[in-house]
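Aim 2 progress update. The chain analyzed this quarter is reproduced below.
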Amino acid sequence: MYCLGLFAYAANYFLVRAFYSFKDTKMPLIITIITVGLNIVGNLILSRFLGAAGIALATSISSSIGFALLLFYLHKKYFKFAPRRPLAYQVLKIILASLPLIAVSLLFKSYLSAPLSFLNLIFRFILVGIVIVLVYALMSRLFNLEGYKIIINHFKKSVSRFLN
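Predicted structure tokens:
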């Protein structure tokens, strides 16, 4: 349950520092107080029904709400000029390009979980990593992601420097 909010928990760290860079310490404090209050209330309610998993779920939910509030106020106060649609479109394309990786990971789960020697396991792990990178590269190419273009250009420059 706790893993559901790990992204929000980690992203909060960076969003709070973004506020600090604008010399705004008041808004992160207010949002953190709200988040802690939600976490306490959520812990009290969900722990009765789900036990320890309820505490983890409440923490994930409150952290996600804190993330949403920090992102909303950061965008509202400091980035009024930033277009929303292109960013949302790029994020959607990245999510769609990542979905096949779930299927690939599930296919290779049994391949990696078989009892093996350490060296054989390392070899299989590298092989699965290469397959996942190739699948993501293919999906990035199909969805025409910006990051893919940057990586390919960097790779081409590195190869041309190496060959010359």
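The helical segments are 6-21, 26-50, 52-78, 85-113, 118-143, 146-163. Residues 2-78 form one domain. These observations will guide the mutagenesis experiments scheduled for the next reporting period.
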